[in-house]
Design a protein that fits this description.
about 500 residues; alpha/beta; 3-stranded antiparallel beta sheet; about 15% strand
Length: about 500
């Protein structure tokens, strides 16, 4: 019988230590287990970290090298960079089931018992020692580092109630109540936001990482704990809320730096994968690729904005929440107008503002501007950045000898005409409103290559937003939507203290 060829169902039929030995089981540390299974997956060309996009040539090879080196790992990066998700996916590199001594508090390996309970049981019953099986999904422990975490939580403490109930002396090892770390023997143990852990608590991890022994209230226990440690940390934490003490950093063999998506295409993959659209009529809501690009561009603009704290970062959760809100804006309009199908609109991005304001940490100047205004301006910058991918720059065309393609629509607004795009407009009303602007349809059909018919109105609205971002038109928020008008007339119409572009009370 070859132990390694047995299925999970066959393994669970093994109930005693004698049967386990007969099957050919050999004790193996968790780091060897991770290493062996990773080698097998690399040889088979299997992707261990399925769904982790953008790290194929950077972070994932670093993690694989660390596992092959049997290293503890610190994932260092800004928020929303899949650090915890990567740690959780490492369980896929564990064996499906491993044997443990039945009833052992620390999940002792039958061939390498750790606790006095397991050693005594094996000495007493020998090959008849009962065993049970532990699934890999249970071999993962995660702890968020908070200021209230104590040494007792992580390492353990003497339990006086246990001593009294069992009538044990305080000299007896059995009075110890073990903490999370010993209970994670033969498991992956993750501490999130390590710098938030108090320095004296970090010190308690020294010996566990290096020598494998622990001390609890005077007990000198030699417990060679078998744990794969994974830590996560934000670089800003080193100088903000706390820091990782130097001796602990020295004991974490591999520090791997994560990063944000390096392209819009990668960002779109992540957003599409993570957005929660369950129950939404997504088959009835068409989302042009440009809108998906705009959602990702908002995050790119936020990461480069002078108003957003770059050290804090802009999580990938911003684009995920923004995409969900954008779909919900179109969904709401479907229900209000009792329509079967719709196409998302640029105006739907106004509904994305609440998803942005809670995801960006502003510097002092940003706080002075206001979170709503900063979010509104980020949307505008995203439109401006994407506009030139589809249309010629209005600033350049204004000076071009070939003629300005925007002259007819701009002239219409120059005559005092105003266009309102309302959030609740039906598709028919939306189309009628855009068709009132002469020359706008021609601009789109002539300049946008391979324009799908159902996206025509979307690009017509996009053209107006782009012209507004290039200061060719005025755009301001209404209680129920957006209004476009001539730039110069809007300046004269502006009352004392009135904001032309945005009013946070409109949100």
């Amino acid at each position: 019988m070859d132990y390694h060829t047995l299925t999970g169902k066959e393994l669970k039929q093994i109930r005693t230590l004698g049967q386990l030995k007969a099957a050919g089981y050999q004790a193996k540390s968790i780091k060897e287990e991770l290493r062996d299974n990773l080698i097998a997956k690399i040889k088979a060309r299997e992707n261990v970290f399925e769904g982790i996009w953008g790290y194929e040539d950077t972070v994932i090879p670093d993690i694989e090298r660390a596992i092959l080196s049997r290293h503890n790992i610190n994932l260092l990066g800004l928020r929303g960079q899949a650090k915890t998700r990567i740690a959780r996916m490492m369980t896929l590199l564990l064996d499906e089931y491993v044997p443990v001594v039945y009833g052992s508090e620390l999940n002792d390996d039958p061939l390498a018992p750790l606790t006095s309970y397991a050693r005594n049981l094996i000495e007493e019953r020998g090959d008849d020692t009962p065993i049970t099986w532990w699934h890999r999904n249970e071999r993962y422990t995660e702890k968020l580092a908070t200021p209230d975490v104590s040494v007792a939580d992580l390492i353990g403490d003497v339990d006086p109630i246990k001593a009294a109930t069992m009538k044990l002396s305080y000299n007896d090892e059995r009075v110890i109540h073990y903490g999370l770390v010993p209970r994670s023997h033969r498991s992956i143990f993750v501490i999130n936001e390590l710098p938030d852990l108090q320095a004296r608590i970090q010190v308690a991890l020294f010996n566990i990482l290096q020598e494998g022994d622990i001390q609890i209230r005077g007990f000198k226990l030699r417990l060679p704990l078998d744990i794969q440690f994974v830590f996560t940390a934000n670089p800003e934490d080193y100088t903000n809320r706390g820091s990782i003490v130097t001796p602990l950093k020295d004991r974490i063999e591999s520090q791997i730096i994560t990063h944000y998506p390096k392209s819009i295409e990668i960002g779109k993959k992540i957003t599409a994968q993570e957005a929660n659209l369950k129950g939404k009529p997504v088959e009835n809501i068409h989302v042009p690729e440009l809108m998906k690009d705009l959602i990702e561009q908002i995050a790119i603009e936020a990461r480069a904005s002078e108003y957003v704290d770059e050290k804090s970062g802009v999580s990938a959760r911003l684009t995920i929440s923004a995409y969900e809100n954008m779909i919900s804006a179109a969904e709401r309009r479907l229900y209000m107008n009792v329509e079967n199908k719709t196409v998302v609109r640029i105006a739907d991005l106004i509904g994305v503002i609440p998803a942005i304001t809670g995801k960006v940490e502003l510097v002092y100047e940003g706080e002075q501007e206001g979170a709503g205004l900063v979010a509104y301006n980020l949307i505008g910058k995203a439109i401006r950045s994407q506009f030139v991918n589809y249309f010629p720059s209005p600033e350049e065309k204004k000076k071009s000898k070939e003629g300005n393609p925007y002259v007819i629509p701009l002239a219409w607004f120059g005559e005092g005409n105003v266009l309102d795009i309302l959030a609740s407009q039906s598709d028919k009303e939306y189309k009628q409103a855009l068709m009132e602007v002469p020359g706008l349809e021609n601009v789109v059909t002539q300049l946008v290559k391979n324009l799908p018919e159902r996206e025509k109105e979307f690009f017509m609205e996009f053209a107006l937003h782009g012209l507004a971002e290039y200061s060719q038109l005025s755009k301001r928020m209404l209680d129920t939507g957006l209004q476009f008008k001539d730039l110069f007339s809007s300046m004269f119409d502006m009352g004392p203290g009135e904001e032309d572009d945005f009013d946070e009370d409109d949100l």
